[in-house]
Specification:
DUF247_pln, mainly alpha, elongated
């Protein structure tokens, strides 16, 4: 990988009128600010530290440019673009919280390079790169001044405006699952909103935006959760959304209902794998204090299920119509009861007719 980084560094330098020394001099001006973004750098001297930063930063920028203009490259000759498995490994490394470069370093080096005016901004090529590799629900209008790529992935998922107010009070300990709510008569619908966090419950209908789930989704989300845990304890919106999913999804059946309604697109294929992924993501997270919107949503869902009419309907559906065998058994029992009732009425009619006839002849 180090050899490939140097090749990409050379490729980036050919695009600009500057040389490595120019970048090093600029990085020396930013060094204290860059070091302030990290902990435990005492073992790195100035030269080693700046060397790592400049090689990694120029490699990332050149990689993003080649992906953006990939049609202009001969994929067979490119040491990375020609190897999809290597591209997958690289994007995983770029997302890991412990591997981050400050975003301002990448953006300022890109500006310093003085590329032709027709070149897009660094944010544009960054968004294009993550869109190309199945990072869904990207809201480019939110991509402003992130700290690094993990922060950028988080901002992609946030709404443009917040009506969330963090509430202090008793934690939400339980919400009924998708299958339980469905049996009680609650309707699940896919929302037109592009923001994953935009959950709406009104008059027995829960609307949820479409969530594309890939094999890589757990890795993205786990790093975002870790980042929120460290930096956004009062604004951990992605964490709260995943906890809501954890409440709603407790079995393969719950997943299947959401897939059937178009709320989840399961590219993992296996409902059990998705159920396990959601439940594992929220392990060791003790925060169940939701923002005001989600808190109201939880109360509304629980209140809907616990309404006596809905609750007994759910119990009836669960006991008698929960599986194909139960449905068949219930229908058979009803038919037998109906036939018995009809037969009993016919026998009663026959008995009355015989008695009338007997009276007539007598």
């Amino acid at each position: 990988m180090e050899e490939l980084k140097l090749k990409y560094l050379k490729g980036f330098l050919t695009r600009t009128h500057l040389c490595v020394v120019d970048f090093v001099l600029k990085l020396q001006e930013w060094e204290s600010r860059i070091r302030g973004c990290y902990a435990g750098l005492d073992s790195f001297n100035n030269n080693d530290f700046l060397k790592i930063i400049i090689i990694d930063a120029c490699f990332i920028i050149e990689l993003f440019l080649r992906c953006y203009f990939r049609n202009a490259y001969c994929l067979k000759n490119d040491p990375i673009l020609s190897k999809p498995w290597l591209l997958d490994d690289i994007i995983r490394d770029l997302v890991l919280l412990e591997n981050q470069l400050p975003y301002f370093v990448l953006e300022d080096i890109y500006k310093l390079a003085g590329l032709n005016p027709e070149f897009p901004s660094f944010t544009t090529i960054t968004i294009h790169y993550f869109q190309h590799f199945n990072v869904q629900n990207i809201n480019s209008e939110r991509a402003q001044c992130p700290k690094h790529f993990t922060d950028l992935l988080r901002t992609f998922l946030l709404p443009l405006s917040f009506d969330f107010v963090q509430e202090v009070g008793n934690a939400i300990e339980h919400v009924y699952s998708v299958s339980q709510l469905s049996e009680a008569g609650l309707v699940f619908q896919v929302s037109e909103s592009k923001c994953l966090l935009d959950l709406e419950f009104d008059k027995g209908v829960l609307k949820m935006p479409c969530f594309h789930v890939y094999d890589s989704t757990e890795m993205y989300m786990r790093n975002i959760l870790a980042f929120e845990e460290c930096n956004y304890s009062g604004q951990n919106y992605i964490t709260q959304y995943l906890i809501m999913l954890d409440f709603l999804i407790n079995s393969e059946k719950d997943v299947s209902i959401l897939v059937e309604k178009g709320i989840i697109v399961n590219w993992m294929g296996d409902a059990n794998a998705l159920d396990t992924m959601i439940n594992n993501l929220c392990k060791n997270i003790s925060m169940y204090r939701f923002n005001s919107k989600y808190r109201s949503l939880c109360k509304g869902l629980n209140g809907f299920y616990e309404n006596p009419r809905n609750k007994y309907k759910a119990i009836f559906v669960h006991e008698y119509f929960n599986t194909p065998w139960k449905i068949a058994s219930t229908i058979t029992a009803v038919l037998l009861l109906l036939f018995t009732f009809i037969q009993a009425k016919d026998q009663q009619k026959l008995k009355i007719a015989l008695e009338v006839s007997k009276d007539m002849f007598l």
